[in-house]
Amino acid sequence: MNAILLKILGACLLASLLAAAALTLKKAPKRVRFAVWGLAALLVCVLAAVFFLTDPAKKEAPSLPSYSTALEDLPADYSIAQAKADGCLVMEGRTATAGKDVWQSFVSAAESGGSAAVRIVHSYTSTSAGGPPSVFVHDLSFDGEIYTYRGFEDGEEITRQFKYLLRFEGEAPATAAYRRYVRYVLVNDAGVTWGDIERGMFSSQSGDWIDHATVYQELTGTAAANAETLDTAISAAVLEHCGDKYYEGDFRAESHVILGVDGTLAGGTVTVYTMALYQEFGYAGAGFRSVSGSHIPTALTFRVSENGDGYECELLEYWTPRDGSYYWPDLREKFPASIPDDDLDTQKWITQNMRECYAQAVEYGQVDTDAVIDGLFEIIASSPATSSNPYDYIEEHIVEVRELEYYGEYTLRYISERQDETGLKGQLMRIVADRIK
């Protein structure tokens, strides 16, 4: 904007000089007229060079690292330590821990309309006892118009493109273990809010899902960067408490939704009210199945102590409601009144929780999801063979349809790669995609 104003002022100055020169020429001697013309011409050349050959608003392009190893050539054991050494943006759990300056350079370059690229590494705590963290690497690039987000899943390259990179900042909800958030999210609709995106993620209604990718997140506040500490403590407590209570499978997983928090990590004790899902999975053939588990509102109380760099949580109480007629009164007595009855309904959260557990099981077993999903569609399409209504096939195979919903993003990816599919299978794929979204 400053550059435009300067050019407008410059144009006005040029016009004033020429007008003054023209008036002077009518009355001045010939020698004076030549001098004025010469001075005007010189000023025009100087100002034109200043206004049109320079750009006061243009800033020096920010410095971004270049990565010597291509994304597809990274080793399978690529570590967080190596990612930090390579100058990547590193996200551990749910917050940025390294490469923030690199990220801001990328954002500045993109905002100025120039091309830019950054490598983003996400690390998540393993749900298997003593297991290493799961590491996911993506390359994000901007060509001046489109953002391209590229990574690998199960050895297959996944490339997604978006028009906009939006920044969301605000106060965290009261149930969060942090106070403020900053998120950068790739979207194709510049008018969406973070609330819109979040509602789409948790909604069971078709059409609510908003295509997006959260590429940067920073959580700050009193309990701030230790939000991952609380999540880790909850996961460990659920896995340990349920581990010897159910039929043992090949792999165990958990997923939880925090419904409310009483206290803070800095306050000595904290009680977390969650909807917790525990699953034991057994692997057979190309896929896996749930062999046992539970899904129930759970209250966990931790004693919190500082350990220098953060907090340690020691489980004091693992509470679940009694069965039968005691179930609902127990819940309403234990859980705060601020948590509505609707949030205590397991059916509200089962799809979200199961998708997270399925994703863990896919990763652990290196499952070929395309083969599994293809098999599920074959079963659904097998009967009732006499019907021409695709919804009759959906209703007859609701168990298989639910499996496809639990595979979530894997199912959507399978469908998106087969958009030209016609006939009954094509109709079934579109119905399932709508149910997942």
Layout of SSEs?
Elements: H1 2-27, H2 30-52, H3 80-85, E1 89-92, E2 95-98, H4 100-111, E3 116-124, E4 134-142, E5 147-153, E6 156-162, E7 164-171, E8 180-187, H5 194-202, E9 212-220, H6 227-242, E10 251-262, E11 269-284, E12 287-306, E13 311-319, H7 327-334, H8 346-365, H9 369-380, H10 390-396, H11 398-407, H12 409-416, H13 423-436
Parallel strand pairs: 1-3
Antiparallel strand pairs: 1-2, 3-4, 4-5, 5-6, 7-8, 8-9, 10-11, 11-12, 12-13
Helix pairs in contact: 1-2, 9-11, 10-13, 12-13
List keywords for this structure.
437 residues; alpha+beta; 4 domains; six-stranded mixed beta sheet; 13 strands
Shape: globular
Task: For the largest sheet, list the strands in their spatial order.
Answer: 2-1-3-4-5-6
Fraction of residues in helix = 25-40%
Low-confidence stretches: 55-62
Measured by DSSP, the beta-strand proportion falls in 25-35%
Largest sheet: 6 strands, mixed
Number of helices: 13
Overall structural domain count: 4
Number of E-state strands: 13
Round the mean pLDDT to the nearest integer and report it.
83
Structural class: alpha+beta
